[in-house]
Amino acid sequence: PAHVLVSVSRWFRDALPGTDPLVGAALVGAVAALICLLRWALRASISEFAATLAMLLLSASWLRHWHPGQANGLLLLAALTVMAGVLLGSYRMAFIDALTGLPNRRSLEETLDRLTPPFVLAMVDVDHFKQFNDSYGHAAGDIVLREVGKVLRRHSGALAFRYGGEEFCLVYEGQAVTRSEPGCERARSALESQSIRVRPAQTGTRKLAKPKAVAVTASFGLAARSASEKHPRDVLASADKALYKAKGKGRNRVEVAR
User: Fold this and answer.
1) Are 50 and 88 in contact (CB under 8 A)?
2) How many domains is the chain partitioned into structurally?
3) Most CB atoms within 10 A, among 14, 37, 156, 202?
């Protein structure tokens, strides 16, 4: 904004006599951009990246070698960058689960609305998660959920969604059960063989507990579109029933709706 530029220019004129105020303002903008860049590197935030780029463009527009039209173009580009960052940040807040980085349930609902056959849906539930939270604390539970999300994204061969709590959903577009079931089995096996390091919760002491490697498993329920269940939400309900069968048969297994 113009009043910011004027204020910074006056400060440089008074603090450093003989220094070009606009160059000084550009330097301040560059420092601000560097701070934003460091914050972006630490947090990997889209809004921080947009702020960094906007500050660089704004700083560049204050240098004297630009023609007025070019400087105005840089200012416009900086404003558009900020707007894009705000829009992308809002999208992430609405459709991306903050804990796991996976698309959330709202995103799943939109995906289900546009699904066309063939497709297979799978519901995934982390085994004994409540007991795990009670034993190790919610912070450790969050670590487990993040790791489960990573395993599903890497090994299932499906679009993975955070459904809610300790439940996830996998969407296999254009596939039959013969291809999606092995994908679920790969994810189940990868999770079972992975040790997740967590720090048990402690009360009544200031000492941090030593990290501990824990084993985590999950149960899977699959269902495919059929003549009697054509709507994706009906298929999802069948997958949920198959999930309960998997849990009833001892957990840590893949069960297909028949």
Assistant:
1) yes
2) 2
3) 156
Strand order across the beta sheet in which 254-256 lies: 159-164, 167-173, 119-126, 218-224, 254-256
Which residues are designated catalytic?
A: 166
Based on the fold, state whether residues 44 and 121 are members of the same structural domain: no
Q: Are 17 and 24 in contact (CB under 8 A)?
A: no
**Using omega within 30 degrees of 0 as the cis cutoff, is the peptide bond preceding 211 cis?**
no
Q: Is 240 left (phi over 0), alpha (psi -120 to 50) or beta?
A: alpha
Domain boundary pick from 67, 95, 123: 95
pLDDT (tens digit per residue) in 81-113: 555 555 555 556 667 898 999 999 999 999 999
pTM: 0.69
